[in-house]
Amino acid sequence: MRREIRLGGFGGQGIMLAGQILGRAAILAGKHATMTQSYGPEMRGARVAADVVIADEPIDYPKVIKPEISVFLFQGAYDYYRREVGQLLIYDQDLVKPELGEPPDGLRVFPIRANGLAEELGRRVVVNIVMLGAFTAITGLLPVEVMEEAVLRSVPKKALELNKEAFRRGLEHGKELLARLDSEGRR
Amino acid sequence: MGMNLIAKAEVEREAILAGTHFLSGDDACAEGAIAAGCRFFAGYPITPSSEIAERMARRLPQVGGVYLQMEDEIASMAAIIGASCAGAKAMTATSGPGFSLMQENIGLAFMTETPCVVVNVQRGGPSTGMPTLIGQADMMQVRFGSHGDYAVIAYAPASPQEMFDYTIKAFNMAERFRTPTFVMSDELIGHMLERVVIDPDKIKIINRKRPRVEPGERFWPFEPEADLVPPMALAGEGYRIHVTGLTHDERGYPAATEPEVQERMLERMLRKILDHREEIIEYEEVELEDAEIVLVAYGSTARAAMRALRLARERGLKVGMLRLITCWPFPDKKVAELRDAKIIVAEVNAGQMAREVERHARKPVYKVNRLGGEPIHPDEILRKIEEVAQR
Description:
The complex is a heterodimer. Chain A is α/β, with parallel strands linked by helices. Chain A is built from 6 helices and 6 strands, in the order E-H-E-E-E-H-E-E-H-H-H-H. Chain B has helices at residues 25-36, 50-62, 73-85, 96-111, 141-144, 160-177, 187-191, 259-274, 277-280, 301-314, 332-337, 353-361, 378-390; strands at 19-24, 38-43, 66-69, 89-94, 116-124, 130-134, 153-155, 180-186, 193-198, 283-286, 293-297, 319-324, 326-328, 342-347, 366-369. By secondary structure, chain B is an alpha/beta fold. Chain B is globular. In chain B, the strands form 3 sheets. In chain B, strands 2, 3, 4, 5, 6, 7, 8 and 13 form an 8-stranded mixed sheet that branches. In chain B, strands 10-12-11-14-15 form a 5-stranded mixed sheet, sandwiched between helices. Strand 2 of chain A pairs antiparallel with strand 9 of chain B.
């Protein structure tokens, strides 16, 4: 089955790295994956998106056609892509304010404290890894161990522990959020 | 510098990035070059090919090679010709504007029968056009861009895996036929990441033929053997050689006022490629057996065509695809076999390879085109299939 994921943010947040980690994890899990990217001509601070397709079979068209899962770390990216977020919207609760009102049927929404958790770790740069942790818990798309392995293979050696911690905090945060929504019967 | 960049006869296993990776097409291209034995890269970075130069700049020193940042693409092309004459497997990578600048020296590489590889990751043109966005509009430039007559070997990879595989193949064919060869990629393939499996046991390396006599013995640098390809002596080895862009005889001496030498030498240079076209030509056939409609596509557009094919088949339409892997030499016989089908050619240009398909199928084809900036969407091809099916 073809799964399409869009990760949106601004240049410098590590969106491309997050997309690469997700694709690498899919490969480690024996699946097929493609990642394409879109960005403006600016080097930093502009809207960027990493689009990932994951499938059990070889992928024909490598670009995202209609995303199923959207993850946003930047208001500008959300605003640009808001018309097609798919069935699952995950976003940083401090950096993105989606104007959804009551979410339409078939859309599940997960606000994540990714930036806040990254700041608590003392390094805001790991916001992408925190978000990947939460993404792993919420989507169940790929096994936790495989995602963690992909993170550790993709970050500088001197930052292994920091990233491991960032991934775990995101993962726990995602699990807690799921449990809370379950208990409220809102999942 | 005391370096020895002369290509080794064997696969240098320790230099190869063995394993299963999630790589961009550009990165896979660089790794393919390293695996093929490329130890010299001269280039001028240009989007969307810059990642090739970037990776070569990092990787070549690790494997005893040389990366040269040149002042422009004219010099880049000249440098790889020189490096190859001295025995190194050499490559450059560029995009449209740089490819235009390289054209004269590409002709020099053809005329001097110097093996080398030129990668063009195509973007929207003409001129500086759309640096970060896709194009496939240099397909005729690679065939005819330099002046004079010559025969071209050019590949159009459709995935990062093929960027790896066909960069190696481009080196092998360059060495086999003493000719420049081309990897005609596009922005989508260059920048996208996908699984790339690199197995050193499966890599086959071809090196240029070397003189069969010792230095000092009678050796003519452009005297062909039975396959029409002359063995190549390296600069500084001790053989007497002369290399010129002027029309030259088998000794390499200029013969710029001798039409019979031009006839003899140029005909051989064309035939050394074209007589071996069956050995060189590669394509992929997808569900052609019962196809009433045949899609012809290459590079990233073939992947949109593949999806359109599947969707059309689900709707009961008998659609197949001929995916061009070598755009040049063109798979003329295969295309001629398709003439009973309705043919749709999809490409991100105003209809370049479509004309070649029409020429060999000897009938008009249907076209799906975009002029650059955006890849062709599978739905656009599907709509054309449905329209054509009604006729």
